[in-house]
Amino acid sequence: MTAVGVIGGTTPDRRAVISVLRRLRSPEGQSNPFPLYGELRTMGDVVPAPWGGYFVTGFEACSQVLRGRNWLAPDFAWQERQPDAERWQAPATREMSHTLSRLNAPAHTCQRRSLGNLFDRRTIEDMRPHVEEHVTRLLDGLDEELRTHGEADFATAVSEQLPIRTVGRWLNIPAEDHPLILDITHRQVHAQELLPTKSELAISAQATVQLRSYFTQLVQQRRANPGNDVLSHWIRHWDDQMPDDRAGADRVLYHLTMFITIASLETTATLLSNAVCFLLDDSTRWDWLRRHPDHVDDAIEETLRYDPPIHLNSRIAADDTVLAGVPVAKDTMVHVLYGAANHDPRANGDPGTFDILRNGTHLTFGGGAHYCLGAALARLEAHTLLTQLLKRFPTLRPASSPVYAPRMVFRRVTSLRVTT
After folding, report:
1. Cα 14 to Cα 23: distance, rounded to the nearest angstrom
2. What is the DSSP secondary-structure string of 61-74?
3. Beta strand ranges found along 71-220 (DSSP E)
4. What angle do CA 56, 411, 28 make, to 5 degrees?
5. Would you state the torsion angle of the CA atoms of residues 174, 95, 380, 153, taken in this order, to the nearest 10 degrees?
6. CB–CB of 118/374 below 8 Å?
7. Could you report the per-residue pLDDT of 298-348, keeping only the tens digit for each?
8. How far apart are CA 254 and CA 220, in angstroms?
9. How far apart are CA 119 and CA 171, in angstroms?
10. Sign of CA dihedral 248, 249, 252, 255
11. Read out DSSP for 117-184?
């Protein structure tokens, strides 16, 4: 990575930046990182990172990076140009570099086009009754646990289960394999953190081997017994695209299937837990939304703004450029801070207040070529869950504060205990 230039003629105190980062990794910072993002924003829209590169904190600057064609994902070509290329050799890092999130044109364009409009209106409507059925069954289980034990962990009993059941049915993944996939995903995601430790990378490496084994076998099994499911359609498409390279087609299919599956799990689960957490945090919000269910979608959008499931994403300058008045050299990495951008008061007034009727703006699903493939599906799952939950559990309330995993990039609510 290459550090370039100064900000507005001044350079923020490196120690101050390190202090914020250290506090972001603390339990207090994990539970409420937004005041710390505010500290970074006071240092500028583009703040030098201690190791080189920049943090991007302002809404407009983040939007420019996410939507601009002159900002690229940190792909293999970029990694190999780095003086510290060894840093990018961790197995889990290398594996994720094959997926859509780390590809640039033309490879990204080719794979994205092969998927089409993955969750278009027709697909969402086809999936709706199945999502409703999943939600009903999960809430039946929640009701039973509340009656039996007086309280339940909403995060593990409902939030984590709905996404894997939804994507599992869509891809025809056996239900008995769902716990394994969830477990692997929880462990693999360490490698996608900003500064993973050696022990975290080792955990991710082991999980990566398991992911590769599982989804490679899934592709092979579906190839041997094709059906009318999504994966079977993908197999037919890539066999047509690569008729003389069956092994190459299977590698593409493995990476697509693996990425779409795991990308839809923790992010959606966090959205679901966060929405319930913020609505229950003030009983008047829960009661008000029960009386005004036509604003469920507004509550979902405010949850996405207030606490996005992913707080950081990285991009690379394709050429020498200027970002928010700061010169940024080609190949320099910048870290887009979604949480900071969504709380920029220039984009959303009084950003620290959770306001269902805000009608605000957010960057949570990214932008440009890498706009989130599963945005419509995540919204469907959240809408369906909240609609049923509000009707069935009018007196639901928190039993304790939510617990977050110790991460800076991927938010994960590990526990959200509720009672009635």
Report:
1. 14
2. HHHHHHH-TTEE--
3. 71-72, 151-153
4. 85
5. 70
6. yes
7. 999 999 999 999 999 999 999 999 999 999 999 999 999 999 999 999 999
8. 9
9. 13
10. negative
11. STT-HHHHHHHHHHHHHHHHHHHHHHHHHHHHHSEEEHIIIIITHHHHHHHHHHHT--GGGHHHHHHH
Largest CA distance in the chain: 64
Strand residues in 209-332 grouped as ranges (E): 312-317, 321-323, 326-328
Q: Over 50: is that where the pLDDT of 7 sits?
A: no
**What is the rounded CA–CA span in Å between residue 321 and residue 99?**
27
Distances (CA, A) of 90 to 191, 276, 404: 8, 36, 25
- CB of 40 within 8 A of CB of 340? yes
The model's confidence at residue 138, banded by pLDDT at 50, 70 and 90, is: very high
State both tokens at 389.
Answer: 């939950």
Looking at the whole model, is its pTM more than 0.85?
A: yes
Answer yes or no: are the C-beta atoms of 304 and 364 closer than 8 Å. Answer: yes
CB 199 within 8 A of CB 241: no
Strand boundaries in 279-366, DSSP class E = 312-317, 321-323, 326-328, 333-337
CA angle 137, 120, 214 (to 5 degrees): 60
Q: What band does 113 get if pLDDT is binned at 50, 70 and 90? A: confident
Handedness of CA 295, 301, 305, 310 (dihedral sign): positive
Length of the chain: 420
